[in-house]
């Protein structure tokens, strides 16, 4: 009798053996979650009924004939059958139609399994348009999605990179008093941390606490990392306090995250605090702790402290930590101390640890930043004794060679890469094309683009955007647009960067109508503009004299939720436009105000265009006009161009003022044109000018760098006699030059002055 009852109970399997009998409950239907037609516990009869209904549903689109076929099959729709059929369907519209039809036929509300099966169809089809209505119905019926279904919904959105939609679904569940699963929260918080959506993460975190979920130290760590890396120190520290108040014990992972995250945003003192606090919690720093702290100190230019930390770590260690060595090597490289970096490589070898490709890549990266291409090539050959160069190694070398305009050498490295069995990927080609485009070698960049094997190495959006930008900046806007069309034909979708480049360059070429067309085309294609694009477009529109369109764009930027970047330039253009519309003529003072705004924004090319417009409108520049332009050109290190304006100014009979003289002398000295700077300096003094501290310091530095140490020292003495302040940096440069020239007596005096300066600075800081 008992056996018969057990046999009649769905979801129970009985096995009889020679010595025993055991019963096993199988997951099925309402026992553990939504119905699954694949479960072995489903009887053959039930499976046949599901197959029959599915065959009818797949025979054509939903309509009266399909409904008649379902009626005639004789299958009474009940919870198990509906759930089984829905679990087999993939089309969400068909699933919804069947779901509603069975509801009408049976005249009963569906069970939990049927609703959950319908939700899984939505997950599979990634279509959640009807989700809110279904959740509302489930809530009214007194049940909600199972934990597994809830998690699957969130995971589906995360995989589709629809994080805000996933966040909205969680809020929708809360609205209908449905309790989202714990893992749904943690999964979404983890995904949001990768997207740096700190505020959404915090909102979900607080919701978990409201629902009574136990928040772990791991969750706190995830949130603290994101807030700290965004530089939101107060919020991160507040979370730490909350964690302590919840009696959560901090583990070593949390301390390591705090050291790394706070350190990377420049909060070195806070990172130090956590490093020392670890021991009070009974935790000892591990390799990750030391490596993170060393990296933080190196980045903050506190190399001596980093070295001490490294040596502290090395005490009593038999096996060196490769990560710490690589970090320290990078630190020495960033500081330009390559000899020390090389010594660390040798030290690794002596300890029986062969330097890795990462260590060499660190050195090559730093050499590239310093422009030391010859030394990089030497190290590249030397590294082959210890480590096989990888794809990153070749990319680093190609990058620096292209920046140095050494195309032949870059191509040789690319060929050696192929010979080593590594083939250039799209990143390699993007580096070459981007660097060559920015260096003005457009023909070479375009040639490389054409040579790309589209079957092996297909150009991506970055490839196209680099070339489009390069062509546009060099006035070749038609070719840039042609490449844009080619990009569309290849199935690539241009991003906001590509559209920004096209709009800016069409306007700069005087083709504003084409610029407007590009913007309209972007909107039509559904590309969302970013703040940079909108500000660029607004800037171009104002400069083209279209004040009304500019104002409309201003409102559009605010409508997008951005804060418009309306600097002095746009305001100045707007005022100039209104002034001319009212029939007034801009005088030299008006133009000078506009030029000053452009120069301060480092829009020097636009300033030069305005200068030419000023002359075209018969408004003669004065001495102040030239001074503004010379100052602006020197600010962006265009010293030769500044010198041309200087000479033009003299020819027109304008006398440079002290600021102009100082700017020009400093600029020439920085550019290495020390002879011209010296002549100008002496002429300035002969005309009754009184050089200031900046002028003197720049001249001393320029003479020192040009191996004219004795002249630099004479000027140093003159500066002291005049009572002008001498910068510590100037003293260091002069001291180095005097030592090289073996002027030891003078070097001793400069050294003493430098020491006194350091003492006085220390005393003033301690007050």
Automatic annotation (TrEMBL):
Keyword Repeat: yes
Source superkingdom: Eukaryota
Occurrences of domain PROP1-like PPR (ranges): 90-245
Keywords linked to the UniProt accession: Repeat
Repeat positions for PPR: 111-145, 181-215, 216-250, 251-285, 286-320, 321-355, 356-386, 390-424, 425-459, 460-494, 495-529, 530-564, 587-621, 622-656, 657-691, 692-726
Spans traversing the lipid bilayer: none
Keyword ATP-binding part of the UniProt annotation: no
Pfam families, sorted: PPR, PPR_1, PPR_2, PPR_long
Recorded family membership: Belongs to the PPR family. P subfamily.
PANTHER family: PENTATRICOPEPTIDE REPEAT-CONTAINING PROTEIN 3, MITOCHONDRIAL
Name recorded for this polypeptide: PROP1-like PPR domain-containing protein
Organism, as annotated: Daucus carota subsp. sativus (Carrot)
């Amino acid at each position: 009798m008992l056996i018969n009852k057990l046999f009649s109970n769905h979801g129970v399997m009985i096995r009889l053996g020679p010595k025993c009998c055991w019963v096993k409950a199988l997951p099925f239907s309402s026992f553990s979650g939504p119905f699954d037609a694949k479960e072995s516990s489903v009887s053959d009869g039930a499976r046949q009924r599901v197959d029959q209904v599915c065959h009818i549903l797949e025979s054509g689109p939903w309509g009266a004939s399909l409904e008649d076929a379902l009626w005639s099959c004789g299958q009474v729709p009940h919870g198990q059958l509906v759930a089984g059929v829905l679990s087999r369907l993939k089309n969400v519209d068909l699933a919804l139609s069947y779901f509603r039809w069975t509801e009408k036929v049976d005249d009963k509300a569906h069970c939990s399994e049927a609703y959950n099966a319908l939700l899984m169809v939505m997950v599979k089809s990634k279509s959640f348009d009807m989700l809110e209505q279904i959740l509302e119905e489930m809530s009214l019926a007194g049940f909600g999605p199972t934990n597994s279904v809830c998690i699957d919904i969130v995971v589906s959105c995360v995989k589709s990179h629809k994080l805000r939609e996933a966040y909205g679904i969680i809020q929708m569940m809360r609205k209908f008093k449905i309790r989202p699963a714990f893992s749904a929260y943690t999964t979404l918080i983890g995904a949001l941390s990768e997207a740096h959506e700190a505020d959404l993460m915090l909102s979900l975190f607080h919701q978990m606490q409201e629902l009574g979920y136990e928040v772990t130290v791991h969750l706190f760590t995830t949130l603290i990392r994101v807030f700290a890396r965004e530089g939101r120190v107060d919020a991160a520290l507040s979370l730490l306090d909350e964690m302590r108040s919840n009696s959560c014990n901090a583990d070593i992972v949390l301390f390591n995250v705090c050291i790394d995250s706070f350190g990377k945003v420049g909060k070195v003192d806070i990172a130090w605090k956590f490093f020392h606090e670890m021991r009070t919690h009974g935790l000892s720093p591990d390799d990750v702790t030391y490596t993170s702290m060393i990296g933080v100190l190196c980045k903050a230019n506190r190399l001596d402290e980093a070295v001490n930390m490294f040596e502290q770590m090395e005490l009593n260690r038999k096996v060196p930590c490769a990560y710490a060595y690589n970090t320290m090597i990078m630190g020495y490289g960033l500081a330009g101390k390559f000899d020390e970096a090389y010594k660390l490589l040798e030290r690794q070898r002596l300890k029986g640890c062969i330097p890795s490709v990462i260590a060499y890549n660190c050195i090559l990266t730093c050499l590239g930043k310093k422009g030391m291409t010859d030394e990089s090539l030497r190290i590249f050959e030397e590294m082959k004794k210890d480590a096989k160069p990888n794809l990153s190694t070749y990319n680093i070398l190609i990058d620096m060679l292209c920046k140095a305009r050494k195309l032949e050498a870059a191509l040789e490295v690319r060929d050696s890469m192929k010979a080593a069995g590594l083939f250039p990927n799209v990143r390699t080609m993007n580096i070459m094309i981007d660097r060559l485009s920015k260096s003005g070698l457009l023909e070479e960049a375009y040639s490389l683009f054409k040579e790309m094997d589209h079957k092996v190495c297909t150009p991506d959006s970055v490839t196209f955007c680099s070339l489009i930008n390069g062509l546009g900046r060099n006035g070749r806007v038609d070719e840039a647009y042609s490449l844009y069309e080619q990009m569309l034909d290849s199935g690539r979708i241009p991003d906001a960067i590509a559209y920004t480049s096209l709009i800016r360059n069409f306007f700069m070429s005087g083709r504003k109508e084409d610029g407007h067309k590009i913007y309209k085309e972007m909107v039509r294609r559904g590309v969302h503009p970013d703040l940079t694009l909108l500000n660029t477009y607004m800037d171009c529109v104002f400069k083209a004299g279209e004040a009304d369109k500019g104002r409309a764009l201003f409102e559009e930027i605010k409508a997008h939720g951005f804060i418009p970047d309306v600097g002095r330039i746009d305001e100045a253009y707007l005022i100039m436009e209104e002034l001319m519309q009212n029939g007034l003529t801009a005088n030299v003072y008006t133009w000078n105000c506009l030029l000053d705004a452009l120069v301060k924004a480092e829009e020097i090319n636009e300033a030069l265009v305005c200068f030419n417009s000023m002359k075209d409108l018969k408004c003669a520049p004065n001495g102040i006009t030239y001074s503004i332009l010379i100052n602006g050109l020197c600010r962006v290190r265009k010293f030769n161009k500044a010198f041309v304006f200087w000479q033009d100014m003299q020819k027109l009979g304008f006398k440079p003022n002290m600021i102009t003289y100082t700017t020009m002398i400093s600029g020439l000295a920085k550019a290495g044109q020390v002879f011209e700077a010296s002549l100008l300096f002496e002429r300035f003094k002969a005309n009754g000018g009184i050089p200031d501290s900046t002028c003197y310091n720049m001249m001393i530095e320029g003479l020192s760098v040009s191996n004219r140490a004795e002249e630099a020292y004479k000027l140093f003495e003159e500066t002291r006699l005049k009572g002008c302040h001498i910068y510590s940096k100037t003293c260091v440069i002069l001291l180095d030059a005097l030592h090289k020239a073996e002027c030891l007596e003078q070097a001793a005096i400069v050294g003493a002055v430098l020491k006194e300066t350091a003492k006085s600075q220390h005393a003033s800081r301690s007050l």
